[in-house]
Structure formats: structure tokens, C-alpha cells
Amino acid sequence: MKIIPSERTKNIRYAIRDIGVEAKNLEKAGKKIICLNIGDPLKYDFKTPKHLISAIESTWSKSSSYADSMGIDSAREAVSREAARIGIKGVTPEDTIITAGGSEGIIMSISALINSGDNILTPVPGYPLYNSTVMQFEGKMNEYRLNEEDEWQPDLADMIKKINSRTKAIVIINPNNPTGSVYTRSTLKRIIDIAGEHNLPIFTDETYDKLILDDDFSFTSVGSISGDVPVVTFNTLSKNYLVPGWRAGWAIFSGPRESIGDYADAVKKIARARLCTNSPVQYAIQPALEGPQDHLKDVIRKLKARRDITYKRINEIEGLSVKKPHGAFYAFPRIDVDVESDEVFVRKLLQEEGVVLVHGSGFGRLDEKYFRVVFAASEQALNDAFDKLENFVKKNYM
Ligand SMILES: Cc1ncc(COP(=O)(O)O)c(C=O)c1O
């Protein structure tokens, strides 16, 4: 007997992890590998704040039962207060769902929104989970450009052009993965206007909201300025609180109840069907959001120094260039050398130099060639990797 996988799984790719498999094989064969492909700060020299570990250590005995499907009270209450702190008005605990990382909220929210053949507007380049989930639920990909010339801000003319009768929502990822861009308040305002004019809700992914690297950039939560436009805000402890393995995230539904109420109920139905998310880790959400935030200063200081190295070193390599990231820990350099694809570039670099990056085409259909660098690695690892990258480009393409 041969079990045939469904058609809808055919187009699901996740380049970030796919390239890692190849790297692992090379490492097993004895090659020295420098990994700049996985957005997990704990793979480098970042540590989970101690008070969060204590917070869950003491909860195991009370968290062996199923939790409430929407999440434990203390977590939902903390998320609703966090919503108020970032300016989203009128959010009660009932307007929140605790999810297994931000990912589960994203998957449930897309699944409750689209029918077969519908599309949601996703950024290109963009975090691949959105498109892979759209494919999983038999939707169609519909990507709007982020504009490299404009520091990777969304191209609003392209966004408007792409809206069609089957478009069901607009996705914003801010701060952005993979470009590290932080969107201006005026850009966000204009996206909200576009969404309002076309009766579309906004899905806003604010996973990196506390990782803003420069004082002259500030984070604006879409739900704080969205007026009557319904918004689903996704967030997670994964990156801001250095616990990606815990799988603790949430979704917030905001906007007029008559617009978003039935839809939020549909997402909640899906949440009930999966019983609950992991109970123990939910006890970390309130201490994370409302306990000491001291670690963030240190994280931002380190990331800023590493961002500066990345920006300087890559722009010094002939044939490569990069816009300065102002948030998260990603940079998205452009490859202007004679190579058939960015995937070939990245795979060849891995084979020859042992440096693991992710090819730009893993983040959507792009006109130019790019790669993503995770600059959460140590200064030493980054400098070693950029020495190798420089050598590789000189040797193969100059
Ligand atoms: C933009 C973005 N959204 C969502 C996620 C998923 O995060 P989580 O670990 O909370 O599922 C990631 C993870 O890298 C991300 O970069």
C-alpha cells in the first residue's frame, strides 16, 4: 500500500528549515558550519530571563489538566492589559485567544477566513507561514511588494492593484521578517485606509514589536490606530521573551463587534476543537508581559552592534548591498552578481564555505535575488561568516 499525500501539500515549502537539513548533513560529514538561517536567539548567546523559567517551574502541578480552550484567565487578562498598553482600545480577555506560538493563531485565523479559491494579501518578501497556510486551505497566493528602494516599506500602489473580489484580508508584518524594516505610522495609516475602503480586515503580525533597534524608529500597533477597521493582532513570547520552544502566543480581535464578532466566534470554534494549547507555558505569559523587562535592554544593545557589523560588512562586499534593518534580527541583502538564482548562490555558499543563509525566493516571488541573514549570532561568528562570504563572492563571481 502507498499512501498518497493530498494535492494541497504539494506547494508547501519552508525554506528556512529546508536549507537547515542540508547544513546538518554537511555538519555530520565533518564540515564546520556557521548557521545564520534560524530566527531562534537561543541558538546563539541569548538566554531566557530567569524569572520566566521560575514562573513555569512552579506551575507543573497545577497544569496537568486541559486548560480552557481560549487560554488560562491570567494569560488572557494580561494580554488584554498589554493591548491597552500598546493602545488597542476596548479589548477584554474575551477578545483574546492563547495559542501555541503566534503560528497557531495565524493558522486558525486564516482557516476561519478563507474559502477555497479566496486569497489574502501577503507581503513579498514575507514570513512564509502565511502563504503555506493559504495553500493548505486551498486559497490562492496574492502577494504585494515591499519596496527595497523605500527601505522595504510596503508598496501601497501595488497593494491596491492586487486587491480583487476574492481578497479576504491584508497581512502586515511589522517589524518585518525577513527585511528588519519598521513601518512608519503614516504607512500604517494608509494601509488602514485601503483596508477600510475595500472592506477588508487586517491581520497584523507584531512578533518583534519590542525589538526596535533605533531611537528614531518607534513601533505603532495597527490596532491602536485602526478606527472601524477590524484587526487581528498576532503576538508571541517567542522572540521578545526568548522562549521560542515554549510555544506561547496569542491573537487579539479588535474593531467594531458587529464587524468582527462572528468571525472571532468562528476562530474560537476552531480553538475549542483543538481543546487547548499547552497549559504549563501559559503561566509565563502574565509574568513576561508584566514582570521585569530588563533583558530587552541587553538584547537590543547586542542586536544593534550585530546589525551594525552586518550592515557595514555586507555593503563592503562588491556585488552585495543591504538596507539597514531597524527592528527584529534579520537583514535581507541583495545579490547583484551573475548567478542563476539566489537558491544556487546560497547552496553553493553552504557547500564551499559552510555558511548557512536562506535564499530570498524562500520568502516569496521576487524580481531580484536576495538572501536573509539572521544577525542574532555573536560578533565573532558574524565576522567569520562575512569573511567567508566575501571570499566566496570574490572567488566565484568577480
Ligand atoms: C513574522 C513571524 N510571525 C510569526 C512567527 C511564529 O512565531 P512563533 O514561534 O510564535 O510561532 C515568526 C517566527 O519566526 C515570525 O518571524
Helix-strand layout with pairing:
Blueprint (H helix, E strand, L loop, with lengths): L14 H14 L5 E2 L14 H8 L15 H13 L10 E4 L1 H11 L7 E6 L4 H8 L3 E8 L5 E2 L1 H7 L4 E7 L11 H13 L4 E4 L25 E6 L12 E6 L2 H17 L5 H4 L2 H6 L3 H23 L3 E2 L8 E2 L2 E2 L6 H12 L1 E2 L1 E2 L9 E6 L4 H19 L1
Parallel strand pairs: 1-13, 3-4, 3-6, 6-7, 7-8
Antiparallel strand pairs: 2-9, 4-5, 8-9, 10-12, 11-15, 12-15, 14-15
Helix pairs in contact: 4-5, 11-13
Bound molecules: pyridoxal-5'-phosphate.
Pyridoxal-5'-phosphate binds next to helix 4.
Tags for this entry?
single chain; 398 residues; alpha/beta; Aspartate Aminotransferase, domain 1; Aspartate Aminotransferase, domain 2; 2 domains; 39% helix
Structure notes:
The protein has 398 residues and is of the alpha/beta class. It has two domains: 7-47 and 294-397, Aspartate Aminotransferase, domain 1, CATH 3.90.1150; 52-290, Aspartate Aminotransferase, domain 2 (3-Layer(aba) Sandwich), CATH 3.40.640. The protein is 39% helix and 15% strand. The chain is built from 13 helices and 15 strands. The protein has helices at residues 15-28, 50-57, 73-85, 101-111, 129-136, 156-162, 185-197, 257-273, 279-282, 285-290, 294-316, 342-353, 379-397, and strands at residues 34-35, 96-99, 119-124, 140-147, 153-154, 167-173, 202-205, 231-236, 249-254, 320-321, 330-331, 334-335, 355-356, 358-359, 369-374. The strands form three sheets. Strands 2-9-8-7-6-3-4-5 form an eight-stranded mixed β-sheet. Strands 10, 11, 12, 14 and 15 form a five-stranded antiparallel β-sheet that branches. The chain is globular, with a radius of gyration of 21 Å. The relative contact order is 0.17. The mean pLDDT is 95. Residues 39, 101-103, 127, 173, 177, 205, 207, 236, 238, 244, 249 line the site of pyridoxal-5'-phosphate (PLP). Residues 39, 101-103, 127, 173, 177, 205, 207, 236, 238, 244, 249 line the site of pyridoxal-5'-phosphate.
